[in-house]
Amino acid sequence: MRIGVIHGPNLHLLGKREPGVYGTLSLSEINERLKTRARTLGVTVETRQSNSEGEIVSWIGEGESWYDGLIINPAAYTHTSIAIRDALLAVSLPTIEVHLSNIHKREAFRQVSYVAPVVLGTISGLGPYGYELAMLALVHHVQKASP
């Protein structure tokens, strides 16, 4: 099984950017933890990060030919991107939305997700562990869906 992980804008700054909100791990450390966990599950994980909405939309559109499931942290695009929402609707790819912080405990504008209504589920506020939970859920979902 292959799982794609898409990290949105500013996540390349993790570890430096607002550590009280997002934690002290860097994005590369989060990715390494995720890949280590994936190996224990017999899963292949490919991680990508972009600050470009168009690039993220392209990756989603190409995802069906690469992945069995997708984990996405759209970051700031969560609250603004109809394009990412529409791309997720256009593909038949089980997807879980992840946020390091609890978006529902933050500013009002951060509490709205354009992505949440079109994905399997959302994991928010559990820090880097949220990515691992999303991977476990995707593995379970895909295996359950396979005859």
From TrEMBL:
Superkingdom: Bacteria
Gene Ontology molecular-function annotations: 3-dehydroquinate dehydratase activity
Pfam families: DHquinase_II
Enzyme class: lyase
Catalytic center residues: 22 (proton acceptor), 99 (proton donor)
GO biological process: amino acid biosynthetic process; aromatic amino acid family biosynthetic process; chorismate biosynthetic process; quinate catabolic process
InterPro entries: DHquinase_II, DHquinase_II_CS, DHquinase_II_sf
Keyword Ligase: no
Key words, A-Z: Amino-acid biosynthesis, Aromatic amino acid biosynthesis, Lyase
Pathway entry: Metabolic intermediate biosynthesis; chorismate biosynthesis; chorismate from D-erythrose 4-phosphate and phosphoenolpyruvate: step 3/7
Catalytic activity: 3-dehydroquinate = 3-dehydroshikimate + H2O
Keyword Thylakoid: no
Enzyme Commission no: 4.2.1.10
Residues under site feature: Transition state stabilizer: 17
Residues binding substrate: 73, 79, 86, 100-101, 110
Family the entry assigns: Belongs to the type-II 3-dehydroquinase family.
NCBIfam families per record: aroQ, PRK05395.1-2, PRK05395.1-3, PRK05395.1-4
Function (record text): Catalyzes a trans-dehydration via an enolate intermediate.
Subunit structure: Homododecamer.
Name of the molecule in the record: 3-dehydroquinate dehydratase
Annotated gene: aroQ
